[in-house]
Write a structure and sequence with these properties.
Layout lengths: L1 H14 L21 E10 L2 E10 L9 E6 L14 E5 L2 E5 L7 E2 L3 E6 L6 E10 L12 E7 L4 E3 L1
Length: 160
């Protein structure tokens, strides 16, 4: 049942135009809507399990009705079903995407918390975080929504 929900989320993500450059949404007089998305949070690894907590932020100037954040790990996720929260879906061997929900201009979004299991028991992993789909808005500052963090299997929190 849970995998069907994840499949439905992924289908919705695909329907929104994932995999293409962010579309220019119509603004006033043909201008593009502009928003600046970023993500801050932490990752903790213990025995092949990674707990991630992140909060999306829209620095504006326009609101975003919804967007999708992608998390990729340098090693494959464990085989089988991952228990992901609503709004998140596994999209590949090493990748999960999550909806952020609506993001008002100059405001924080809802915190996203997920746990994934990695194949084997790696002693370290690199996790990449970036915007996959920005709700049709143009983001001229992509440097703050693309991050990489090295996470060691120490049980310590690594912040990004």
């Amino acid at each position: 049942m849970r995998w069907m929900r994840g499949l439905a989320v992924w289908a919705a993500v695909l329907a929104m135009g994932v995999g293409v450059a962010p579309a220019r949404a119509a603004g006033t007089a043909g201008e593009a809507t502009e928003a600046d998305l970023s993500y801050h949070g932490s990752a903790v690894m213990r025995g092949g399990r990674v707990d991630v907590r992140l909060t999306p932020r829209n620095h504006g100037p326009a609101d975003v009705s919804d967007s999708t954040v992608r998390l990729r790990w340098s090693v494959p996720l464990a085989a089988g079903a991952q228990r992901l929260p609503a709004g998140c879906a596994r999209t590949g061997r090493q990748e999960v995407v999550c909806r952020t929900g609506a993001l008002a201009a100059d405001a924080l979004g809802e915190r996203i918390a997920l746990r994934v299991w990695l194949r084997g028991r790696p002693t370290e992993v690199t996790m990449a975080v970036d915007t996959l789909w920005g709700g049709g808005a143009v983001d001229r500052n992509r440097s703050n929504d693309r991050q990489q963090v090295l996470v060691l299997d120490t049980g310590d929190a690594y912040f990004f």
